[in-house]
Amino acid sequence: MTQATVDEDGRGEVAALTAAACLFHGFSDRSRLSIVQHLALGEHRVVDLTGHLGLAQSTVSKHLACLLDCGIVTVRPQGRASVYALAHPAATLDLLAAAETLLGLTGDAVVLCPRYGEGAGS
Predict the structure, then answer these.
(1) Which of 84, 89, 88 is nearest to 47 (CA)?
(2) Which of 23, 84, 94, 122 is at a distance of 20 to 30 A from 35, taking alpha carbons?
(3) Distance (Å, whole) CA 21 – CA 69
(4) Residues of the chain with pLDDT under 70
(5) Which pLDDT does position 5 carry in this prediction?
């Protein structure tokens, strides 16, 4: 993230941090992340994604709605189907590459995190 212009009471910084947290929340679900990775390969219909990912149609549709609301994906009609694509493919791929780099640097720390890792809350 770039440093935001901050007004005297810090509202600009708070707004920028809130937006960033919302963006990362859009990527925080394993199913949504799988959908984003598939859309990085090109446009897909819901039926294509359900087949590729082994997820229920309702699950894929729910997560696509979230990604659409967040501005991460776009949708266009094609006959009776809807075709989804990444709204900003280059920026999304850059973000995913940066995440992979950071994950490589942290090793197993993220997975083992007692608050958000695999065993969290159990």
Answers:
(1) 84
(2) 122
(3) 15
(4) 1-10, 122
(5) 52
| pLDDT, tens only, 35-56 | 999 999 999 999 999 999 999 9
Give the number of residues written for the chain: 122
Give the tokens for residue 89: 């493919």
3-state secondary structure of 35: helix
Spatial separation of the C-alpha atoms in residues 63 and 35, rounded to whole Å: 8
Rounded Cα distance between 12 and 97, Å, is: 28
**Beta strands at 73-78 and 44-45: parallel, antiparallel or unpaired:** unpaired
pTM here is 0.83
Per the CB < 8 A criterion, the answer to whether 54 and 61 are in contact is no
Q: What is the pLDDT of residue 80?
A: 93
Around Cβ 101, how many Cβ atoms within 10 Å?
10
Token digits of residue 93: 């791929």
What phi-psi label fits residue 10: left (phi over 0), alpha (psi between -120 and 50 degrees) or beta? left
User: What are the structural domains of the chain?
Assistant: 29-103 (1.10.10.10)
